From TrEMBL:
Protein name: Gustatory receptor
Chief location category: membrane
A single cellular component GO annotation: neuronal cell body
Species whose genome carries this gene: Papilio xuthus (Asian swallowtail butterfly)
Membrane-spanning segments: 39-62, 83-101, 121-141, 174-198, 210-232, 345-368, 374-393, 455-473
One Pfam family hit: 7tm_7
Length: 478
């Protein structure tokens, strides 16, 4: 287990840490972070998270077996779905590369997407980066899903201690947003495919274009589903950080710390409703804010009063200790998630950068040539908007998670300034502060960049530079 070394560095006794690790999902954290636990894992998912996993399963990105339950679906790794995903993506990649070679061999005179030497290079890069992204997503899917099933235990322990309230309204909104994105992208893909097929009719090559590009468009869909899968998983983890911070703010209020703003605890499980390991010791529909306290190491930190107000059920010192353990568990989940999606995230960022260069390039060249293809101009504009949306889908959940991490640091600093100097509370806060220094809340795929809003500014700056270079080359090519 990774609990012992992690907390030993910040001064907590190792025997207590091992016991606490078991209490707050130590098995799931250790396994999720790369431990040697080989148990057959299951978890229960529902709502929007279940929808994205079902769609991902169809495209080979989530090789899972789904078993219906009254409160969602029990999911586990399926060997048959692993084989299905490998075969599917292999066929699609081979078909896409063969189609690219055939389209380039046809020549720029009759090609609808490669009308110049420059556009041949640009289109080839476009096709290849999508194929590599989708291939990395599918081939790495079994390992990512195993890690997901393992760190579900850690998420379940946070829900157990902090409290999870099921919000049907929020869940319906999330499902609606997810379906809207999928429908919009499906319409855009179909429209783009039909547009180029119709353009090829004047060269009597419409069926050649359909055969050459159908694999490419399916792989496009796979890449988009991969991004949504990561975004929903990251947002689910972020919701738990927010709940820990709300409990920390409540603790700060009790010890009279000057917290700038006291947030009302929102419904916690807004993305992965009932997301838990099946062996978790709780009923599916119980409100964890009023759970029982038979085992002191499994007791909840907060419960509701008669008036519905949340209050601590343990002393502030004990609350700080348990919140530090929960925060450490969530940090391990973030690091496991970062490692699981490292290569696909880097490829997605490269793909997004390339497409944000290529798509405006074709749009600008169409305006310069002035062939009055309004449909093409509208398509390229929609693709530009889609690629910007893709970048925000990846970056924004990570940005929100980092923001919650900074909020934790601020709350602990305020508590350290305002807490009484006597008793064990200052020492607990010092341990928590050292833990925050050693465990950062950040997504840094393969250590190459940090997924935060400054990355968006860097990408847009790079896009502007390369667009100018491409347009200059086009002038000499003409």
């Amino acid at each position: 287990m990774l609990w012992v070394p992690t907390f030993h560095f910040v001064g907590v006794e190792s025997d207590k840490v091992a016991h606490e690790g078991a209490a707050v999902g130590g098995e799931g954290v250790g396994a999720g972070a790369g431990g040697g636990d080989t148990r057959v894992m299951h978890c229960v998912v529902g709502g929007a998270h279940a929808i994205i996993l079902r769609v991902s399963s169809f495209f080979g990105l989530a090789p899972l077996r789904f078993e219906s339950r009254c409160n969602g679906f029990t999911v586990s790794i399926s060997n048959a779905m692993c084989i299905y995903g490998y075969i599917l993506v292999t066929i699609l990649v081979i078909s896409t590369i063969s189609g690219l070679v055939a389209e380039m061999s046809a020549g720029v005179e009759v090609s609808v997407r490669m009308s110049s030497r420059m556009s041949q290079v640009v289109s080839a890069c476009d096709v290849l980066v999508v194929a590599v992204t989708a291939g990395a997503g599918v081939y790495g899917a079994p390992r990512r899903m195993r890690n997901m099933l393992k760190f579900c235990e850690s998420i379940a322990s946070v829900d157990h201690s902090i409290g999870a309230q099921y919000s049907r309204v929020t869940e319906r909104k999330l499902c609606a947003i997810l379906l809207a994105i999928l429908i919009f992208f499906s319409i855009l893909i179909a429209d783009d495919f039909c547009f180029y097929a119709l353009q090829a009719t004047k060269y009597q090559r419409q069926w050649n274009v359909v055969i050459n590009y159908i694999g490419f468009y399916v792989l496009w869909y796979v890449a988009m589903i991969l991004e949504l899968q990561f975004a929903f998983t990251a947002l689910s983890v972020r919701a738990r950080f927010q709940a820990v911070n709300n409990a920390l703010a409540l603790t700060a209020k009790i010890v009279s710390a000057p917290v700038k703003k006291m947030y009302e605890p929102p419904p916690l499980n807004v993305l992965a409703i009932r997301m838990a390991a099946t062996e978790a010791r709780r009923c599916a529909n119980v409100s964890l804010l009023v759970d029982t306290l038979h085992d002191p190491d499994h007791s909840v930190i907060i419960r509701n009063t008669v008036t519905g107000e949340p209050r601590l059920v343990v002393p502030p010192c004990e609350a700080i200790r348990r919140l530090a353990c929960l925060h450490g568990a969530l940090c391990d989940v973030v690091h496991a998630l970062d490692r699981s999606y490292g290569l696909p995230l880097i490829l997605i960022l490269i793909s997004t950068l390339l497409h944000l260069i290529v798509t405006p390039y074709f749009l600008i060249m169409e305006i310069i040539v002035s062939t009055n293809r309004i449909h093409f101009l509208v398509l390229q504009f929609l693709w530009c908007a889609t690629h910007m949306l893709r970048m925000f889908v990846v970056v924004e959940p990570c940005h929100y998670t980092i923001t919650e991490g900074k909020r934790t640091e601020g709350l602990v600093c305020q508590l350290m300034r305002s807490a009484p100097s006597n008793g064990s509370l200052p020492s607990r806060l010092e341990v928590f502060a050292r833990q925050l220094m050693l465990q950062s809340v950040t997504y840094s795929p393969m250590g190459m960049c940090t997924l935060d809003r400054p990355l968006v500014a860097s990408v847009l700056g790079a896009v502007t530079t390369y667009l100018v270079i491409l347009i200059q080359f086009q002038r000499y090519d003409a």
